[in-house]
Amino acid sequence: MNNDQYIQIDAFVHREVLMRASQLIEDLLKASMNGDKVFGGVELDNIENLYITDETTAKDYGYASLEAMQEAGEDRQEIFEWWFVSQWLYEQLREADEPVIDSEYGYLWGRTCSGQAISLDGVIERIYAKMMSGQRKGDDNPLKNAVRFPKPKSKTLQGKIAAYNRNWKKVEAAVKSGQTICLTDLMSQAEDIHLTNRANTAGAANSKGGD
């Protein structure tokens, strides 16, 4: 993954992953196990995909079969972190067999790894790639008739920002009229602005250093 790709996926994560909830969810799960009261639907029985159920994943973990993994009692996924996520990402994670909860507090993802940026998680990279691929499939694309925002032709930072702001006004108008909007274009423009600004800042620093 090159730097530009990482920035794009990072922007995607910042949009779809809302807030860390590890301590809250762990406390609620403990409360449900230690008493009769369940808070907001957060309990072990409501965690979807808590257990591994496919042969391929079992073999990836070094077991001869899913049955062997189950007999060893190692088929339960280990959750290291809990995060609130958007409904769209929740649905994608559930489809990808990631632990999730549809709770009264919101949509929750049980992350099964830790110690690195979420942008680097394999499941997130695959979901992002699937999303981008889906937007290139023409007739199969759910955003085929969505309002699109072509990349501004201006090369200056000020011109790009001005065009970006104009496009957001178009978003407001489209929302009021009930049209579907493709935000990927705007994400790309925001990243382009970020890269241009970073290049300008670096150039200014180098020029100052040369003086």
Overview of the structural elements:
The chain is of the alpha+beta class and 211 residues long. It has two domains: 3-134, no CATH class; 139-210, no CATH class. The protein contains eight helices and four strands. The protein has helices spanning 3-16, 22-34, 55-60, 66-71, 87-95, 122-134, 157-176, 184-210; strands spanning 17-20, 81-85, 100-103, 106-111. A four-stranded antiparallel beta sheet has the order 1-2-4-3. The longest helix has 27 residues, at 184-210. The radius of gyration is 22 Å and the shape is elongated. The two termini are 36 Å apart.
- The percent of residues in helical segments reads 40-55%
The gyration radius over C-alpha positions equals 22 Å
The strand order across the widest sheet is: 1-2-4-3
Overall pLDDT, averaged? 82
Counted up, domains total 2
Topology:
Blueprint: H1 3-16, E1 17-20, H2 22-34, H3 55-60, H4 66-71, E2 81-85, H5 87-95, E3 100-103, E4 106-111, H6 122-134, H7 157-176, H8 184-210
Antiparallel strand pairs: 1-2, 2-4, 3-4
